Amino acid sequence: MSGISRRRLLGLAGAGVAIGAGGAAGAAGLATLRPDLVDAADAGVRQGRVHAFRGTHQAGIVTPTQDHLHFASFDLTSDRRQHLIELLRVWTVARGADHHVRVRPTLFLDEEGRDRFGLAERRPQALERLPHFPADALDPARSDGDLCVQACADDPQVAVHAVRNLARLAFGTAAVRWSQLGFGRTSSTSDAQVTPRNLFGFKDGTANVTAEHPDDLEEHVWVPPAGAGSATSWRDGGSYLVARRIAMGIETWDRASLREQEALVGRTKGTGAPLSGGQEHDDVDLAATGRGDLPFVGLDAHVRLAHPISNDGVRMLRRGYNYTDGTTSLGRLDAGLFFVAYVRDPRTHYVPMQTRLSQQDGLIEYLQHTGSGLWAVPPGVGPGEHVGEALLV
Amino acid sequence: MDAREADLVEGEAFTGWHRIEKDLWTERAVDYVPLDGAGRTEVADLLLADTTELYDRTRDMTFTVDQVANGSEGLPDEVATGKVTGEEEFWSHTDLWDFQANVDGAEVAFAGVEPLLRTTDAVLADELDGRFADLQVLLDAQRSGDGFVLYTDLEPDELRALSDAVNALSEPLSRLTAAVLV
To answer: For A341-370, what is each residue's pLDDT tens digit?
Structure first.
């Protein structure tokens, strides 16, 4: 607890929560004062689904996706670099669910071009706000933010609690800008997981980059070393997180015939097999044609346009969730996909593909992107370190 | 011809009806310089040329029964997606004109297959006649002069009623294709 005065301790964290760089002291503090949080953590451990926080890469990317998500974006309310460091330290120590921290371009230079924390020269070029894609209807109140946290758990209360706790720890340094609850994972990050379904009723995430393929992870997900002495080497071994809140036109989708739905996706609804034949995990044959020489998988089918073949071989690690946020003013279900993807460089691995989808995908008629964010994910945390330490040291 | 400004990729040319719409209704346009005479002529000529080309390319097209029936269903869906939400006519708020045009188109397509439907499912045919009529009553209530009130002048409950009527029409309409292909 060196370097943290009692006043700052109480000012930052509220009454009684212990802060420390060392894991043991922090856990003990939490155990004394937040028994419900520790119980939740234990519950997670009993289920075997709380994952090691420290390692080469941050956890929560290739770990098998849990069932519930609480994603929160924070704006920093303090300009003091020391406050930022302390916040990241505090968050690193807090436990309870798998939660992971990422940073945004505005951390380096904010909207008015101010370098609040003396970090401008360390901003990677890839960390540039995503461009407007055709038909985007982004709500600024649901987009962006300096820092974000992804908390996942099989028990929804645990995920909610994790963010609740981190938000409280952040009072005085950062404030929640927006958050999104997600239920039901829409991707598998392990070959052992069954492909889940999205709210269109289709299996989602069949051809995902999974944990069992480290070569694919190296090629598409982890940021390669920037080179000795580079200003951006703090993110080597990290990744980039793209988050998109994609609203679905549930009512109009439900009126579409099964054939139309399958044609738009490019897979069957029942088993998720490609329309070109085979089983769910068989490769799609984009060249196969049928009656009238028309391709089985249409030119505007989602699976064709998102395929690596159509996108210079790039792939993403997807880790999205379904969401339903009540009802709109017109009585429609406010629901969709909270899309989350991890890539090594959004300029090559996300922007071209999303541009193609937004322009050509037949599915886009039933979708609307209403929120967006891009964050850099620092690498894993060693013993005694806090998240993002290499950036702020 | 019909792309809204929000549908464009950064750097793509903005042409067509919505381009003209923006130039005529500039209140919501930010940092916008109106077209001069030459600019207006260019946009208008291009729209005319594109429309003529579209017309020419569709003269020899034929449609199967299911395409016509699905087309009838697709038009109210479009209303649900963009016109009842006011997103189509962002500058002018003339969405109700579009709304009426979509309903007219759906009725034309429906009329094309109705004789067939009357032999396979007369109950559905009566239901659809009724729903089209209900929706038209609500639209007629929003007439103003030889057109309609602006989207922004609708009360929330009026908008809600229109949206509900579109749903009430669309749901049975989604069964049209299956009924005529029996």
So the answer is: 999 999 999 999 999 999 999 999 999 999
Q: Is B13 on the interface with A (CB under 8 A)?
A: no
Among A252, A256, A330, beta carbon nearest to B160: A330
Q: Specify the DSSP class assigned to residue A267.
A: B
Separation of alpha carbons B110 and B112, rounded Å: 5
> In the structure encoding, which two tokens stand for residue A56, read together?
């080469």
Minimum-distance CB partner of B7 among A131, A134, A256: A134
Q: What is the enclosing helix (H) or strand (E) of A159? A: helix A156-170
What is the C-alpha to C-alpha distance for residues A275 and A265, in angstroms, rounded to an integer? Answer: 9
The 3-class SS string of B95-111 reads HHHHHHHHHHHHHHHHH
Cβ B73–A251 below 8 Å, yes or no?
A: no
Token pair in block for residue A110:
């904010």
Q: ipTM value of the model?
A: 0.85
Q: Are strands A333-343 and A321-327 parallel, antiparallel or unpaired?
A: antiparallel
CA distance B94 to B151: 6
Model confidence, pTM: 0.84
pLDDT digits (tens, 9 = 90+) for A158-197: 888 888 988 999 999 999 999 999 998 888 888 888 889 9
Which residue, chain included where needed, has tokens 């120590």?
A93
Contacting A residues, span 348-377, partner chain B, CB-CB under 8 Å: 355, 358-359, 365-366
Digit-coded pLDDT (tens) for A119-168: 777 778 888 889 999 999 999 999 988 888 888 888 888 888 888 988 99
